[in-house]
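STRUCTURE:
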């Protein structure tokens, strides 16, 4: 297979603009997605009246986890095909504008159906952005070592996005406490969604200075660029790669959506959180049993949200360090399967145990445990950004990556959220939080066992250079 010709060296300014744009895109695609555990319960309550933790709220959260992911998977796959057809930079730019604009618009939703529609549009943008950015970076940086570092370290900014959304929500809640006339507590979720517009602003300034993928542009101008085909990724040469990477991507997302993102619904019903709520309410002379003006309910939910915010922070710190760890070791002389297993095996052993123990252990246990769950889970997402460009030829790179990431990860993987939330009724427990913790443990365990088995069939790239 012929190799892509090396382009002229990038100027320092253009190099930093490329890396900065990719980091911005990766950071804010996770920023937009991880808003849901924070804004979902209060948005559902504001738009439907369903209290957090209730069956109606749980059902709506299940819908919000999966329906946007379903549309993201379908249209994300189309976006990958468009990336191969129209170029990496063009699709990358418009995908970021799409998810930023849709998230901002969701803040003004008058009902749950409009909210769901805009969340779905945001998910589409996120799904397309990942594929376009990875293909773009892989083809700009043709030196194998430089390429691995560029993709690895810019993907680490995804976890900065998780930290940033947690910090933004904490700031909005603090401002709401300090200036209640400016930000009503019940509207904090709307302000967090408005902040999703941030990445669109610098992008419009730097876009004219961003180059297209040299390899893609050269073939396009010469008229030698093959037309992308979905069916070709299932040709005999690529069938195993497509099927195995789709399964493994689905399993990685299954742990994230079926377990980690359920924390926001599990923690408010933890025994330690309830005890703190009761203590604080007693100090104020309030009671949940006699609460005509809902002061006690609002205070109790605020206390629970503080715990959720803090635990999500530690999970994102773990994920950030996991991504950096992968970026540091990705250049080692390891097989790709061995590199994946460094993170997959600990995740398989640790995550089910952590979620099984949540109802029985002190809340402090979860701060430490969720750090390591995030470390070993989130690093697997960075693995795919480095692996996938090396196994698909140029004219199928976006299409192949998109099938694994969007059909596997976004559509099939996020079904784990539905499995956990709806399957919780099958598990023992004194409340919905305990049942959901056990269901999340089972979901994560099944996903990682399937991933471990599938990894035996993961194809090893035959060359450090990208296939042409």
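SEQUENCE:
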């Amino acid at each position: 297979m012929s190799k892509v010709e090396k382009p002229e060296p990038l100027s320092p300014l253009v190099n930093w603009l490329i890396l900065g744009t990719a980091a911005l895109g990766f950071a804010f695609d996770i920023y937009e997605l991880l808003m849901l555990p924070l804004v979902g319960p209060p948005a559902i309550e504001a738009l439907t009246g369903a209290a957090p933790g209730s069956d109606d709220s749980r059902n709506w959260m299940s819908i919000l986890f999966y329906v946007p992911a379903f549309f993201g998977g379908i249209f994300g796959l189309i976006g990958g095909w468009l990336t191969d057809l129209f170029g990496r930079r063009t699709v990358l730019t418009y995908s970021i504008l799409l998810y930023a604009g849709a998230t901002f618009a969701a803040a003004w939703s008058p009902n749950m159906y409009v909210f769901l529609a805009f969340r779905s549009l945001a998910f589409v943008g996120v799904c397309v952005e990942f594929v376009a950015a990875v293909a773009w970076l892989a083809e700009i940086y043709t030196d194998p070592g430089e390429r691995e570092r560029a993709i690895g370290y810019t993907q680490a900014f995804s976890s900065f996005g998780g930290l940033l959304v947690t910090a933004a929500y904490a700031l909005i809640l603090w401002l709401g406490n300090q200036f209640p006339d400016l930000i009503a507590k019940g509207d904090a979720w709307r302000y967090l969604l408005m902040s999703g517009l941030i990445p669109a602003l610098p992008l419009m300034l730097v876009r004219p200075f961003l180059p297209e993928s040299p390899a893609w542009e050269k073939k396009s101008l010469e008229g030698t660029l093959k037309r992308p085909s979905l069916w070709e990724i299932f040709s005999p040469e690529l069938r195993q790669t497509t099927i195995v990477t789709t399964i493994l991507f689905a399993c990685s997302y299954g742990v994230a959506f079926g377990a980690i993102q359920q924390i926001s619904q599990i923690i408010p019903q933890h025994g330690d959180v309830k005890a703190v709520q009761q203590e604080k309410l007693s100090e104020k002379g309030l009671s949940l049993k006699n609460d005509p003006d809902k002061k006690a309910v609002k205070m109790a939910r605020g206390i629970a949200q503080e715990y959720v915010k803090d635990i999500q922070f530690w999970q994102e710190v773990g994920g950030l360090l996991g991504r950096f760890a992968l970026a540091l070791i990705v250049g080692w002389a390891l097989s790709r399967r061995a590199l994946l297993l460094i993170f997959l095996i600990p995740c398989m052993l640790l995550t089910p145990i952590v979620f099984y123990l949540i109802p029985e252990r002190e809340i402090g246990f979860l701060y430490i445990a969720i750090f390591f769950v995030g470390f070993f889970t989130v690093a697997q997402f960075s693995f795919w950004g480095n692996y996938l460009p090396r196994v698909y030829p140029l004219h199928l790179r976006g299409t192949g990556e998109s099938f694994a990431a969007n059909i596997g990860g976004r559509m099939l993987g996020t079904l784990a959220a539905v499995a956990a939330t709806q399957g919780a009724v099958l598990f023992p427990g004194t409340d919905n939080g305990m049942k959901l913790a056990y269901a999340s443990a089972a979901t994560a365990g099944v996903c990682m066992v399937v991933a471990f088995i599938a990894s035996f069939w993961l194809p090893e790239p035959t060359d450090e250079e990208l296939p042409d």
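REMARK: The chain has 18 helices and no strands.
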